[in-house]
Amino acid sequence: MTVSYKFQQLPMEKVFRDPVHNYIHVQHRVILDLINSKEVQRLRRIKQLGTASFTFHGAEHSRFAHSLGVYEITRRICDIFQRNYSKEKIGAGGWDDSERLIALCAALLHDIGHGPYSHTFEHIFHTDHEAITVEILTSPDTEVYQILNRVEEGFPEKVASVITKTYHNPQVIQMISSQIDADRMDYLLRDAYYTGTEYGTFDLTRILRVIRPYEGGISFAMNGMHAVEDYIVSRYQMYVQVYFHPSSRGMEVVLEHLLNRAHELYHTEQQSFLATAPLLLPFLKEDFSLDDYLRLDDGVLNTYFNHWLDTTDPILSDLAKRFLNRKPLKSCRFEPKTQENLLITMKEIVETVGFNPVYYTAINSSFDLPYDFYRPKSGKHRTQIELQQKDGTLLELSKVSPLVAALAGQIQGDNRFYFPKEMVDQTLQDNYDLFGETYQLFASHIRNGELVE
Amino acid sequence: MTVSYKFQQLPMEKVFRDPVHNYIHVQHRVILDLINSKEVQRLRRIKQLGTASFTFHGAEHSRFAHSLGVYEITRRICDIFQRNYSKEKIGAGGWDDSERLIALCAALLHDIGHGPYSHTFEHIFHTDHEAITVEILTSPDTEVYQILNRVEEGFPEKVASVITKTYHNPQVIQMISSQIDADRMDYLLRDAYYTGTEYGTFDLTRILRVIRPYEGGISFAMNGMHAVEDYIVSRYQMYVQVYFHPSSRGMEVVLEHLLNRAHELYHTEQQSFLATAPLLLPFLKEDFSLDDYLRLDDGVLNTYFNHWLDTTDPILSDLAKRFLNRKPLKSCRFEPKTQENLLITMKEIVETVGFNPVYYTAINSSFDLPYDFYRPKSGKHRTQIELQQKDGTLLELSKVSPLVAALAGQIQGDNRFYFPKEMVDQTLQDNYDLFGETYQLFASHIRNGELVE
Amino acid sequence: MTVSYKFQQLPMEKVFRDPVHNYIHVQHRVILDLINSKEVQRLRRIKQLGTASFTFHGAEHSRFAHSLGVYEITRRICDIFQRNYSKEKIGAGGWDDSERLIALCAALLHDIGHGPYSHTFEHIFHTDHEAITVEILTSPDTEVYQILNRVEEGFPEKVASVITKTYHNPQVIQMISSQIDADRMDYLLRDAYYTGTEYGTFDLTRILRVIRPYEGGISFAMNGMHAVEDYIVSRYQMYVQVYFHPSSRGMEVVLEHLLNRAHELYHTEQQSFLATAPLLLPFLKEDFSLDDYLRLDDGVLNTYFNHWLDTTDPILSDLAKRFLNRKPLKSCRFEPKTQENLLITMKEIVETVGFNPVYYTAINSSFDLPYDFYRPKSGKHRTQIELQQKDGTLLELSKVSPLVAALAGQIQGDNRFYFPKEMVDQTLQDNYDLFGETYQLFASHIRNGELVE
Amino acid sequence: MTVSYKFQQLPMEKVFRDPVHNYIHVQHRVILDLINSKEVQRLRRIKQLGTASFTFHGAEHSRFAHSLGVYEITRRICDIFQRNYSKEKIGAGGWDDSERLIALCAALLHDIGHGPYSHTFEHIFHTDHEAITVEILTSPDTEVYQILNRVEEGFPEKVASVITKTYHNPQVIQMISSQIDADRMDYLLRDAYYTGTEYGTFDLTRILRVIRPYEGGISFAMNGMHAVEDYIVSRYQMYVQVYFHPSSRGMEVVLEHLLNRAHELYHTEQQSFLATAPLLLPFLKEDFSLDDYLRLDDGVLNTYFNHWLDTTDPILSDLAKRFLNRKPLKSCRFEPKTQENLLITMKEIVETVGFNPVYYTAINSSFDLPYDFYRPKSGKHRTQIELQQKDGTLLELSKVSPLVAALAGQIQGDNRFYFPKEMVDQTLQDNYDLFGETYQLFASHIRNGELVE
């Protein structure tokens, strides 16, 4: 008698060596098949941190590695839940292990819709990685769909509903997506490991020791409060120090201008693009299929930028060169409310010495909320972190942690004005004889990294 | 008065955060300019481990990161030599710190000639990364050359002579290239860190504590014998466990067949390639310039493989698919001397069920010498590792280490026969009804991973 | 010609392998001699964390290891200051390297006056480890004094003045003692390493990269703000999670009662103590010399407790047994202002079932200020942490860090009521038949770890 | 209905934070009770590495921590065996989980018979820690016995039979004692962690992945060969670099002479010892009970050495001072077969300048066999390490590992002659005027750390 696909265990557990979790353990045939699908393998060719690897050269890890990591953390949570907090053991609010496979699939596939340099790409080409994730999960042509559908009819849609947070079981949803979920836990640890920064490290083992299910989702034992607190602080540190790093954003704005320029040129002189960027054409045309999307990766974009070094458009080729050779725009902080006019002046100066400010200056603002509790009137609802006391009652985290209270609802980040390095580096100013005073004027408006009158 | 370029120090030491060495410290303007050159930046787009990242998903680090690491170790050695073993202090055999800049440049640039998937690429297109390194260093058009030449006339050639081992000072040469050099030390530590294996780890701090210059090059204090011994063992472990991993080699043979097929097709039907792989054309034509070479990277090849998914040649598109979607050929060990005929039989079986054995089988042998002492009659000369006793006399490592003696001159590795996974995985055999017995015959010739009669 | 003792360098740098700092490097003969002195060697027999090792079994490291660690961090700071921020380089506010030896000696010897279980011992026997440190440094009979005095006359007193913070150079004082000094940095890292907790870890390398001298003492470069912030958070975490752990304090109160009981018994029946605790006698008599003090260590006290297992006083022998066999008192939190009467009731219950509340209950409060800025009206002055901007102006840390602002001036800790485990563990209640209801009454006053009406 | 003691699980798993294994997990009440017994708690007061902590100051960890570690590794092995290789799953040769408790108890208690500075103490006082372990397990008065006996009658004897290797199940015996067992695995990792050396580190996770039971005991999957090989190499490295360190042995010989001198003095003038060393008396008398033995610990011996500083015997007080203040004897290697006469000469020289060679010189030889396979004629039988091939057949390790083959049966270690540091350090020679030539003669017989004619 054959076991149905849904329940097939590998004869021998398969492992993937992983520097963050030591080993990724795979026990289900379904999971192994998903890992081997072309849609998941494609994630090997997309960097997890995009342009941040230009600042942290060690951080060249892919979304594939991250996806395995999220899967592994979820698997461990399921193990702990099943061992100690099953419905059989603790009744209502306990874990139902028949949810395991759906949780594992959702964990592994949660980022499947990401494309190259997602943030920027989405902005220019109006794609949405979450919507595409759902599309990949539920389109009959994808390998992922075919594997999921073999589990049972409707299974692909169920996995998709975890991503869209409409699944009936909040425990499964919150494992994958909440303020302290397998996704965030993996990327903080992984990004810390690969950048080589220590501040992103928190104590995963300890958090897994205190995580518990309850009827409303996931909570943490009160005696694990400091472990959770430490996670929030690590998250804050990674944002302000790694994710918001000014140089990475200086590369991001170059990329944005570069793709924008290509987009514009397509409409004016599309012929030359036909040969140089075939896989990007559908997006320049704004008429693409899911299959078109799945052909893209970091290497494809970089290769087309490489091709564009030879185009006749000087802006396109120059921006491509700056991107490939890592020449980020430089920046200073500014105050949006009061320095609008000064920004205009600065752009004019940039233009004076010969740069088109549309392509060679930018405003970039990075902000994040390290943690927030429930605010009835807030637009975006966030699942707050709940601590479980001995008698089962819940307490929201910021009520007991002075550190988290300090961060809760506090937006972190800054506003930056970007401009060519040539504006402030005299060794690059080959027209200094003509524009010396202009350059000096520009420099005089920046002090201690801030824009000043 | 301006300081000459050669001696320009950065006003403030510049650091790059690195997970292996914590920080890479840059003090010379020359070094910073080299790092920012397009030839060095290009190394960001070439993976250090090539197809091994298909087996060790964490190991997606680039040759750029490795190059910085080799530079950093060399810098630390120079610091130690200058502080404790300068010519001023210990006389002849001591370190001359005016050699520092040349050592640092050679360290940073030693891999500059590497291209995408070097090993395979070189094999197919008859390139040689060491020769290209020298060409990049000494061709007036490269940014690297221009920076080096600003230091002083003849400086590019001097750096090149370190690479070719013709430089006059053996200490500088052995820092960069010997059986225990900055190159090997960085890649063992880095590859161990990124693969997540522990066996590649050795105690760099301790080795740096006992390294000392002598007239003939680099030696190690006797009391550091065990640290050096541990390094040799780590090297052995990384080779047999990571670098020779059968799955990575299973991807390598796919890649080799894929590039070979493209090469052949170019000669028969080159037109269709003009559009799909412009930057590869000069190589298919076997007429390429240095500039052509410097346009290549992993992403370029992968993108062209992606384009080839749509070609009409079924072998080319199938192999491209196998490579992009990570479908390595499977393998078993065999005995070259006695199993030649059996190999022929196995290939015939592969052909029977429908695979062209030219493109779907392969022989792959991986071998390395973890350590060797000087053998007058050996073809390839290796610098042996010397230990320095209290009275200054030298002793060759394997004379005092039973572990190293066990490994010295012993070639490690194996011979493998590669074939499609379809041959042994029944879930993939859609023609099993027809060829069931053939498949069984094939399987019967493999036992415990070895080819048997 | 012989070099004066003060300037004697070891012919070969001597190293001590250290798990926290990798190596402790000793270059001066003075330092090596101090390490080999009997007063410093004695620190090997005194645990750094006292009773905390009963909770964290891995943390059995000694004050000797910590002293070496503080020395090593100080040495590294001196190296950095000398290399980059010497008076010669940056003028007034720069580092004067002739201060190095005094800084190193003060660092190595800052804890030399500590005795066994310092906190408790001092409380019972009215000793003061800081005063004793000064006494050891300046008493002609100690080996430490003799070594220091060989450096130059008055040198012992100079080192002592660093400890008492009256030395003329605030940079030297703040290296050893400030809110972010070599002492705190070593013990946080070391205690985290040995307890196996990760939350005490901060990025020492990065802090050392941004530390700089200025006229008023030690400051940190603005771009190191987050590294300093992370240190403050680690400090907070170690306090609330390790140093204030309720079980360690449960052992501390046992120890306190035990030493108190011995003190009392001496006055009533001193004879029996003459033989069992000779080295403790001077303290029981309250008439001790420095030499008496230097004979004590953890093992001496533990051995006497061991002897006391055989005394006829049932309280003394029982408390000794509880201490040696690790039977801490249990505890619950309480509110000092409002629960005074309830505490009286609880003690009465403890007495009812047969325990003398004087020796079997206790109040223990642990509090710490993770960080504070200057408060003119505060009794105890603390050196605030200063950040240095590009133009040299200073900013106090909590002004730029929301995390530190949240912790600044906020006292952390709790008040606990301690009682025998027998009160709440039924398996230990051999008189439950008689006192069942009393035990239940006791238990009813504790909920979720807190005292309730 | 109450669960029998044997099967009682803690309501909530109890954990101990451990720096080596992260957490020690305790699930059985029996285990928790054993940990809390006075015999196990006593191990907190005995250092794991004895005099080695005088060389590696970080290595002050206790036998208590090691015992928990051995328990934890055994627990993990049981988990793996039960999950994957139970008798139910793989039939004969599989794991019977009813053996778990006995394995855990034996693991936790395997070192319970160790006393202070075991190696030396046993030598002088003719004790035997393995025999005492058995005695503690099976003597009705110990807490350990009482707990074990509550499990079921005969259980204490069963646990003892695992220690004496007469238990019927070789899997249980080999878990605790074989050439690759939980004991060795924990101490190698733990000692490496606490000394701060990296060479003792091997990949425990990977070894646990490949460990499997078979009828004859414990084996390892063939694909884990390199992990096992790495463990053997680590073991070799720890022996030659840590356990055999000449300075630690220089302290050991001081300790040996000190205890020997005390032993002799007892017979000649025992009165003075009655007061100073009460707990040591039974051993000096050579008439001690198990209870006497259990009163001893490192602190007790050190305290008595401290008392002896004041005795009138100059040799006893001087050796006590050398031990407490860490003044090891110095040493050089020698060749036992050919240098007997030279040793006599050296001792005479030592005597000439005023040292009694009986107490101030010593011969110390340290040897270990890193690994051995079965040798029918060898006196001491060792369980060889077996690798399991896919078809279940076993292969002995050294047959497939060139590294292990190099070490197998090869005894590592050296013979050393110890003498006072005064013999070679001129700053300590206060009678140099008289004996200058004698000192020079002594020094002339040592070259490059070896004894020469």
UniProtKB/TrEMBL annotation, chains A, B, C, D:
Residues 63-188 form the HD domain. It comes from the Bacteria. This is HD domain-containing protein. It comes from Candidatus Enterococcus willemsii.
